Amino acid sequence: MSVDSDYEKFFDWIREKGGRIHKHIKIDTREERGLFATSTIESHAALAIIPWSLVVNKQHVDLATIDADTERQALVLFLSREYMKQEESNWYPWIKLLNIDKEADELLKIKMNLFNCVEHSTLGQALTARYQQLEQEYEYLNQSDMIHISFELFCAIDHLVWSRILDLPENEPISLVPFIDFANHNFNASARWFIDDTTHDLILRSEQSLNPGEEITICYGSKSNEELLYLYGFCQPVNLNDRVTLPVSLSPDDLLLEDKLRLVKELHLPPRLNFDIDGHLTNDSQRLVKVLSAQTLTTIDHVSEHCKPYLQNLLNEYLENLNLCTDEEMFTKYYLDSQKSIVQKALNDLE
Q1: Where does the record place the SET domain (predicted)?
Q2: Same domain for 124 and 201?
Q3: What pLDDT is stored for residue 32 in this prediction?
Q4: What is the DSSP letter of 282?
Q5: Burial readout 255-294 (b: 16 or more C-beta within 10 A, e: otherwise)
Q6: Are 74 and 159 part of one and the same domain?
Q7: Sign, CA torsion 224/171/194/36
Q8: Domain finish residue from 198, 232, 266
């Protein structure tokens, strides 16, 4: 059976469930997939209407019997179960297009290559923590007889969930939305989705006129390059939302350890420093530096001569780690170049 036939079955499945797909849209069959206009489409046209019954989240009746610790885990267990059912699944036309087997085959190679490139960066630390957590989660689910797939497939499905969820309004759970999940990202998106107040359907609408062959994109949000690489496996050469986030900690030998920990807790300061695209610290991060760099109780939470060397040491150490990374791939080069640029701007500001 051809790939085009699978897409047609998928479109028919959505229509059978009460949805609508614009007649001049196709899902591209290349590796990147994506949605494309096959003919001219006017601005503010309804590109797709996806009924709420096809929005997959913890409130869906098909997830009612899934006992999960988190919303993400519920989605992973749901996709795992439906994957095992194959053609007996009510979601099979969509599950088939997700190509979970191929995802599993390629994921380890891609992620290991990414990790090898960025091992010494904060992204490398995040990837390490993520896969350690996945190993522990899989072992628990497997021992509890809640999952019946390999660890590789489990990781692939976890990746699919993270890369395809839509951030619905605050009162709605994280969700997967068939068809809309094939749209690629662009900060200057040509379409946007919203929930109809009356029907609760999800509607994908064009924000501009679309020419034949033009890709239909949505915005995944104001994410940094690190977030884009971590969640989706790509990033942007120019990303105005980019930043550097450095985790920080206190030495157990710090004489002011208890005082600093108490103050950080009282001020609700996250244990990390955030530098924006221009190398400037956020307000919370500026205050955290004052606390962490203090050498006496009277200077705690005040600007002191210790703030500058504390930051310089932290930034120079991270820059050295970044220089140990490799930029063999296009996306890792974008990420590393931007990280180095932001760190250098922050260092220049300290001169």
Answers
A1: 106-221
A2: yes
A3: 58
A4: P
A5: ebeeebeebbeeeebeeebbbbbebebeeebebbbbbbbb
A6: yes
A7: positive
A8: 232
| Helix ranges, the chain (H) | 3-16, 71-85, 92-98, 100-118, 122-143, 151-164, 225-232, 257-266, 283-293, 307-323, 330-350
* Bridge partners of residue 217, in order along the sequence: 184
Which pLDDT score is estimated for 1? 45
What is the spatial distance between Cα 287 and Cα 37, in angstroms, rounded to a whole number?
50
Q: Which structural domain range is residue 73 located in?
A: 3-232
In a domain, 239, yes or no: no
How many CB atoms sit inside 10 A of residue 296's CB? 11
Q: Indicate whether 322 belongs to any domain.
A: yes
User: Which residues on adjacent β-strands are paired with residue 36?
Assistant: 26, 215
Could you give the 3-state DSSP secondary structure of residue 211?
A: coil
Number of domains in the chain: 2
Give the CATH number of the domain where residue 150 resides.
3.90.1410.10
- Across the chain, which has 351 residues, the per-10-residue mean pLDDT values are 78 96 88 86 97 94 92 95 95 92 73 79 90 94 92 91 86 90 93 93 96 95 93 90 94 92 94 96 95 90 91 96 88 94 96 84
Q: What is the pLDDT of residue 2?
A: 54
Contact 295, 260 (CB under 8 A): no
Same domain, 215 and 93: yes
| Block residue for tokens 């699919």 | 160
DSSP assignment of 178-195 equals: TTGGGPEE-TT-SEEEEE
Distance (Å, whole) CA 70 – CA 58: 9
Same domain, residue pair 183 and 310: no
CB 197 within 8 A of CB 177: no
**CB-based burial of residue 165 (10 Å sphere; 0-12 exposed, 13-18 middle, 19+ buried)?**
buried
Residue 132 and residue 134: Cα distance in Å, rounded?
5
Last residue of a domain, one of 200, 232, 264: 232
In a domain, 237, yes or no: no
| Residue 113 token pair | 């290559």
